[in-house]
Amino acid sequence: MDSARAQLEELKIKVTQANLPSEVSEKLLNLLQFSGSPAGGGAELASLISYVDFVISLPFGKYSQDILDINRTKQILDKNHYGLQSVKDRILEYLSILILHKNTAQENNFHAPILAFIGLVGTGKTSLAYSIAESLGRPLVRIPFGGLGDPASLRGASRIRPDAEPGQIIKAIKSAKVSNPVILLDEIDRVAVEHRVDIMGVLVELLDPAQNQAFLDHYLDFPYDLSQVLFIATANNTGNIATAVLDRLEPIIMPSYSDEEKLIIGKNYLLPKAIEEAGFSKDALTIDEATWPQILRPLGFDSGIRSLSRSLQTICRKVARKKVEGEVGPFRISQENLGEYLS
């Protein structure tokens, strides 16, 4: 018992020394005051310590400073993405509005639109979100919605449950270490059908500026201000997204890549990256011009570049193995020997 009381006193000191909002600090101190010696013994005390430590670790009042430089954003978008000019223009328009609202009387009342990149697999939706975060200088945390089946995984579970833990949204805030990260809600159209209504209800609250300034995670049991978070969503299509969620999104339709665009992306972006990942020099591998069409379309038309990226990674892995097994190279991929490198 003495050990438990000592640990509770240590927690009280940690709470008073932490830079917490007064209402949160008061809530924790009251909780510790009335806990006494936890009746559940070690398990209950461990749960209490875990809860207090988690709350203390949240970045209350900590914000990253936005880099609002439209020319820098142009450079980052062009560096990371070939083509997609209409999409890039929309992102630059979005950033322009942020710049105009900065340091004005309207800034505190301004709520950025929630961008939603809609398109087929491999068209660059997720990577665009990372580029936006990079251009703003904000950390990005991705929350995958594919197969998500329990709203509690977003909103957290009450601490009266033995398996209670915070939801993914609050975990993302803790991971980012600031209260204004970019949170990527990835593939929001792919949640489990039986829980879609409940999960869409949580999304409405997250994306509504009137509600997300006091988002209630059931594990925390007090509201947390998410109004400065920049949410970005992605989806393959809008058919499985609730109308109330769509009303809070600004959809940007991702175009499919033409073969010409994929050829340039493959040569200038994906192949150098695959070679670097495989660990050999770019001089060790060449691909004949006549061979590229077979690499671009191994199974017919593909709107994105994900399969192209996988094909080039496969080729580079084969080359890496040949080098390790003693073949000197350089290695030339032609129509005649492509089958050795790519099934």
How would you explain this protein's 3D organization?
There is one protein chain. The protein has 343 residues and is of the alpha/beta class. The chain has three domains: 2-57; 70-253, P-loop containing nucleotide triphosphate hydrolases (Rossmann fold, 3-Layer(aba) Sandwich); 259-341, Helicase, Ruva Protein, domain 3. It has 14 helices and nine strands. It has helices at residues 2-17, 22-35, 42-57, 70-80, 85-101, 125-136, 152-155, 168-176, 196-207, 243-246, 259-278, 292-296, 306-324, 338-341; strands at residues 114-118, 140-144, 182-186, 215-217, 222-224, 230-235, 249-253, 285-287, 331-333. The strands form three sheets. It has a five-stranded parallel beta sheet, with helices on both faces. A two-stranded antiparallel ribbon has the order 4-5. A hairpin with a 4-residue loop joins strand 4 (215-217) and strand 5.
Q: Biggest sheet, strands in spatial order? A: 2-3-6-1-7
What is the name of the CATH architecture of the largest domain? Answer: 3-Layer(aba) Sandwich
Q: What is the CATH topology of the largest domain?
A: Rossmann fold
Shape: elongated
